[in-house]
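Weekly sync, protein design subgroup
Attendees: M.S., D.O., the rotation student, P.L. (late)

Item 1: inverse folding check
M.S. brought a backbone from last month's batch and wanted to see whether the design step gives back something sensible before we order anything. D.O. pointed out we never logged the input encoding, so this time it goes straight into the notes. Structure tokens as presented (421 positions):
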């Protein structure tokens, strides 16, 4: 296909796509039972290869009209993550889907090269695809003011490319999806569940049968289970259900409860959130979006703990001699970029509202700053936003703002689960 200018209509259409065998007899445990296992979960990387993106005008237009992902520094974000995992040396790094921005094969290939560095450092990475990763018809390359279609990646190619990152190390693999089980030690198993093979946000019936067999096998072996998926088992926000909650989500939660699964780790929403219950679910926020964090899980045979950790891109930049001021104060840059993107989008919607310029600016700023605070998963004080909240309510309200305000006192960055019997 020839080169094209990124028109407003094309941009709007593209933005709709943005806001996811055999068994081995035994595998050696990575750690002894007396040592805690450490797992890291990162999700929604949305990596794009520099080979197909020049950070030019067309790419800027798309990113600045999206949801605030810090895409202009996605290479630096990923290199920081690789460095931090190399230093941490966890027993497994779980990458739970939307590995790439738009599913281009070149992005997958270059991401795999970054993961090679972790493998060389002795860190095992486990991957599953998200809704943007396979057979993508929206894969694009960007060059200056133009963009063009790019080659995507099939499920078969995904499995081959990422063979060293979970598939070849699996205790068991499902024949009907890219799901598999990995054992970091004899008393703990990790289920990496592909929720794309049964259609949009769905798990095939055959995979559900395979999954129950794996949970039975874990129970017979005296092993507890941590599950992971890209899309969510639970409803984290009633405004986001179809396409967010796995179609079989309720059935999966019931199955996990039956077999004592410790928790499910997911993403997809881009904001940090937890739904508690018999089988709690953590939706870890996108690594690519402020505050650019990942989840650290520890399990000692009795207790599972989860907490978030923010990437220190500024430290990576200083160590590598980078002089870009935005990189050297990356946390502030990422927060302001996300806020500015959402402020501008809201302001555009208010352009013909009949409000004064000052009123429209206050409304846009209130929603943008509340949204940034909410995405982090941290509790926050509503007091600084009271004037803007009152003005919104006087002018018909805002559902997103009210949803955020209702959860302002909650901290969704930590979870502790007692393994029990």
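Designed sequence read out in the meeting:
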């Amino acid at each position: 296909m020839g080169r094209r200018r990124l028109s407003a209509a094309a941009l709007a259409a593209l933005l709709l796509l943005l806001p996811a065998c055999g068994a081995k007899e035994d595998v050696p445990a990575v750690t002894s039972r007396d040592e805690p296992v450490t797992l890291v979960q990162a999700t929604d990387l949305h990596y794009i290869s520099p080979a197909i993106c020049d950070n030019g005008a067309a790419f800027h237009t798309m990113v600045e009209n999206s949801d605030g992902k810090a895409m202009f520094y996605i290479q630096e974000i990923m290199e920081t993550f690789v460095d931090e995992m190399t230093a941490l040396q966890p027993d497994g790094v779980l990458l739970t889907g939307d590995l790439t921005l738009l599913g281009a094969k070149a992005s997958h290939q270059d991401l795999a090269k970054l993961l090679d560095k972790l493998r060389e450092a002795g860190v095992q990475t486990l991957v599953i695809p998200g809704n943007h990763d396979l057979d993508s018809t929206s894969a694009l390359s960007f060059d200056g003011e133009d963009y063009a279609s790019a080659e995507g990646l099939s499920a078969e190619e995904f499995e081959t490319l990422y063979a060293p990152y979970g598939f070849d190390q699996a205790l068991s693999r499902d024949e009907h999806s890219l799901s598999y089980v990995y054992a970091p030690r004899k008393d703990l198993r990790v289920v990496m569940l592909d929720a794309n093979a049964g259609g949009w946000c769905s798990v095939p019936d055959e995979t559900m049968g395979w999954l129950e067999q794996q949970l039975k096998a874990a129970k017979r072996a005296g092993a507890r289970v941590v599950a992971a998926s890209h899309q969510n088992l639970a409803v984290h926000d009633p405004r986001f259900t179809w396409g967010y909650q796995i179609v079989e989500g309720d059935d999966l939660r019931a199955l996990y409860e039956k077999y004592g699964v410790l928790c499910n780790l997911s993403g997809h929403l881009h904001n940090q959130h937890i739904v508690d219950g018999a089988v709690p679910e953590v939706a870890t926020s996108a690594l690519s979006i402020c505050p650019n964090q990942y989840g650290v899980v520890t399990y000692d045979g009795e207790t599972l703990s989860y907490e978030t950790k923010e990437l220190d891109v500024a430290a990576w930049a200083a160590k590598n001699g980078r002089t870009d001021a935005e990189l050297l104060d990356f946390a502030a840059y990422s927060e302001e970029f996300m806020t500015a993107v959402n402020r501008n989008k809201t302001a555009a919607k208010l352009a013909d509202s009949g409000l004064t310029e000052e009123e429209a600016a206050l409304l846009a700023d209130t929603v943008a700053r509340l949204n940034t605070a909410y995405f982090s998963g941290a509790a926050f004080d509503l007091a600084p936003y009271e004037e803007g909240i009152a003005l919104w309510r006087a002018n018909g309200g805002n559902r997103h703002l009210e949803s955020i305000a209702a959860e302002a006192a909650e901290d969704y960055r930590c979870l502790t689960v007692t393994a029990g019997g």
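Discussion: Confidence is low (pLDDT under 50) at residues 1-32. The longest helix spans residues 330-349.
Action: P.L. to compare against the previous round before Friday.
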